[in-house]
Every structure is written in structure tokens, then in C-alpha cells.
Amino acid sequence: MTAVRQDAWTADDDLILAEVTLRHIRDGGTQLSAFEEVGERIGRTAAACGFRWNSCVRKKYEAAIQIAKAQRQKRNQLKRQTGSSELTRSGSGSEAARAGTNAEEQMSMDAIIRFLRQWKGSYQENERKIKQLEQQLADKEEELKKLREEYEDMKQNGTFNEDYKALLQIMERARKMAFLAEEQEEQKPRFKMDANGNLERIE
């Protein structure tokens, strides 16, 4: 069993790193300040948090990063609009603030919808690939099954052929032995006794 390093990053550590970093991106803060905050929360250095973010965590949250950047940009625009509207009447300023809040909320909803659509598209594509791979695996297993059956048939037929050849060889040897015995029997000299009691050879 592989031992787990004491300083290994956990899923909770990665989640905290992602949440804090995305918040700093959305609010216009720096990543360094985010890494420092995370380091204080989980007991690591800011450098370690930065390395973990860039090497592993960032690639999992690309879509969320784009949303956070879009929210920051929109928020900055609203702040500029709000700042200029402060020169007008207080009533108009309140109305502009409400309009800015509504616009920001709408922007956030649009960003979330885009993110969910991207995620849904990625999920459906991965699901399609999984089904395709499962079908390919099933086809390969069926092909392997047929090859095994053919191999077993060939093994059985091969054994039968060897047995048949051995039987033919035995029969051939028996036939030759019988022929030689018959030939030897015919070649033995034959004798008969004449009237005087003498043996004479019969040709």
C-alpha cells in the first residue's frame, strides 16, 4: 500500500485555493494576495499555493476564471458609471446605483448560464466518447471470443489429424509384417518321404 505524504494536497485544499483565488480575481485583487490568504488558512506558504494553482488547479477552473474576469470588468465599468453619476442629483444617483446593481446581477446570471452551457456541452461530449469506447470494447471482446473458439477448433482438429496419422502408420506396419510373414512362410523348404523312407524336397 502506498503511503500518503503528510504534506499532500487534499481535495478540500484545492477547493479552498480555487474559491479564494476566483474571489480575488472577481474583486480585482491579485493572485499573490489570494495565495497568501489561502496559505494562512491551510498552513502553507504563498509560493506553495501559487505552484499548486498553476500546475494543477487552474486548468480545472478555466471557465470559472473567465467568468470571474468578466464580472470584474463589468464591475469596474459600473463603478466608473456610478462615479460620474454622483455629480448629478442624489435621486438620479440612487436610480443609477439601482440600475447598476440590476445590470451586475443580470451579467452574473448570463455568465453562470454560459458556464453551465459550456459544462453541459463538455459533459455530453464526454458521455458520447464513453459510449463509443464501450461499443469498441464490446466489439473487441466479441472478436476475441470468436478467435478463441476458432483456436479451440483448430486444436481439436489438429489432435484428430495426429491420431489419424498414427493409426494409419500402425495399420501400414501391420500390413507389412503380415506380408513378410506370408512371404517367409512360402519360402520355407517342404519335404516328403518316398516309398523307401527317404526325404525328398518338394519344389
TrEMBL record:
The species is Xylanibacillus composti
- Give the domain of life: Bacteria
The record's region (Disordered) falls at: 72-103, 183-203
Q: Which residues form a coiled coil?
A: 116-157
Protein name from the UniProt record: RsfA family transcriptional regulator
Keyword Coiled coil attached? yes
Biased composition range(s): Polar residues: 79-93
Per UniProt, which keywords does this protein have? Coiled coil
Q: Per its UniProt record, what PANTHER family does this chain match?
A: PRESPORE SPECIFIC TRANSCRIPTIONAL ACTIVATOR RSFA (PTHR41302:SF2), PRESPORE-SPECIFIC TRANSCRIPTIONAL REGULATOR RSFA-RELATED (PTHR41302)
Does the record's keyword annotation contain Coiled coil?
yes
